[in-house]
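Exercise: predict the fold of this chain.
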Amino acid sequence: MAKRRINFTIEIDNNDEDEHVVVKALANSFGSALVDYQVLPDTKSLYEKSEQYREMVSKKSALKKKMSDFVYRAAQKKKEEDYLIQQKKE
């Protein structure tokens, strides 16, 4: 069966105890389905102070949207192809 991958971000207080509680809860809830987690640095100050960083974030966002659109179109094409194959069988 096909798998579905879900990615989300949780913002918590900056301490190890809260992080441990969140990771433990996820592990208890999802077990081996929890593939990966990553602690992200706080980049708010960097974003405010660095034009170069803001430009990189902007480019990353644009590329992320472009990739998402590409994947969506590919999935739609696959659904159409599957539908046509099913119609030929009937």
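Check your answer against the key: Residues 34 and 66 are 27 Å apart (CA to CA).
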